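Predict structure. Chain length: 191.
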Amino acid sequence: MKGATDDDQVTRWAQEAGQGDREAGAAFVRALQGQVRGFLSHLAGPAEADDLTQETFLRAFRSLPRFAGRSSARTWVFTIARRVAVDHVRAVVARPRTATVPDWQSAAEAAGAVTAGADDGVTLHHLIAGLSRERREAFVATQVLGLSYVEAADVCQCPVGTIRSRVARAREDLVAAWQADGPGTRGQRTG
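Prediction complete.
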């Protein structure tokens, strides 16, 4: 699902921003910000997406003067976003825990706040979050953001065949999870 602005225009804005054009820089961010936030929301979680989106564009702007345009600026930014998400997860895992953080979703479900009529989009987002990191990255890049398999391979830094395999397996995982979380049980998770 590419935005209204084509990749060539976004790449031109990136190159112009790298030469100091502030208006081109603003257009570059506007063109990609929503997609980058959505990508990061799936990779690291909605609560972190805004901060990680900002970090992605900070890293991108520091590197814009060296952006050569060998790939589209869109693919380049998603590669940066993926690295930001990986760095975030590593930092969270490495950080010592000082207090128990409540699992608000489980608490709400236990209190009956989430009912069988829960929105399927929320359920799908939850199911995507349950995929392994590699499958989630490939699936979100191709099926949610609309990147080609070649672009997704660049972003995920792996061969195209690996992306195809990860997307196929992610689809299988999602179908199985969706069926296990069928209409009679959707929104009534037990564990």
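Summary: The CA atoms of residues 149 and 164 lie 7 Å apart.
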